[in-house]
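dumping this here so i dont lose it
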């Protein structure tokens, strides 16, 4: 019976991953960035402004890293055709042996086939590479936007999110008795 519960929780998490992933990433980043907001609060900078400054600095850091790494990535893409050609040359012998094994397998299938053996091939075409890249870029951009907004909200209004969770989990209060709830 417990395995049904575990299975249902796992399926729910799988189907809710697009909703839960940005929340968990924002909470994870909040864990590391909340001390900075608390430090800015100690020097009389309100949490709303401190969170905005920290999120803006983080965005600038990611954009500068992207710009800084774009030149080496461009050089690597320029060298890619040569690398692919060299890899094909090195794998030629393996490809030849694999092709020979495929031909032998086809001959064995042909000998084992009873009747005319004609089969129709169905080819399903998916989206092109460009369409896939555009789709993934849009999904990534929207997820990044949601993470940034949630991160700002958690930093600005969350206070010590994990501290309050920790205090609540460690402090167990006993339930009041009936006499304590209803004094005479």
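and the seq i came up w/
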């Amino acid at each position: 019976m417990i395995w049904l519960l575990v299975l249902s929780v796992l399926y729910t998490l799988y189907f809710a991953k697009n909703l839960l992933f940005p929340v968990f990433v924002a909470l994870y980043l909040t864990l590391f960035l909340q001390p900075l907001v608390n430090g800015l609060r100690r020097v009389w900078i309100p949490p709303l402004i401190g969170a905005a400054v920290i999120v803006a600095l983080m965005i600038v850091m990611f954009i500068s890293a992207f710009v800084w790494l774009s030149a080496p990535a461009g050089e690597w893409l320029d060298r890619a055709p040569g690398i692919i050609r060299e890899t094909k040359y090195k794998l030629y012998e393996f490809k030849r042996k694999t092709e020979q094994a495929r031909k032998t397998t086809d001959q064995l299938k042909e000998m084992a086939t009873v009747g005319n053996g004609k089969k129709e091939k169905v080819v399903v075409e998916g989206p092109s590479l460009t369409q896939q890249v555009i789709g993934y870029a849009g999904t990534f951009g929207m997820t990044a936007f949601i993470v940034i907004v949630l991160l700002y909200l958690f930093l600005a209004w969350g206070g010590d999110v994990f501290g309050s969770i920790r205090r609540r989990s460690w402090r167990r209060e006993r339930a009041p008795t009936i006499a304590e709830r209803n004094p005479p």
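The chain has a mean pLDDT of 82.
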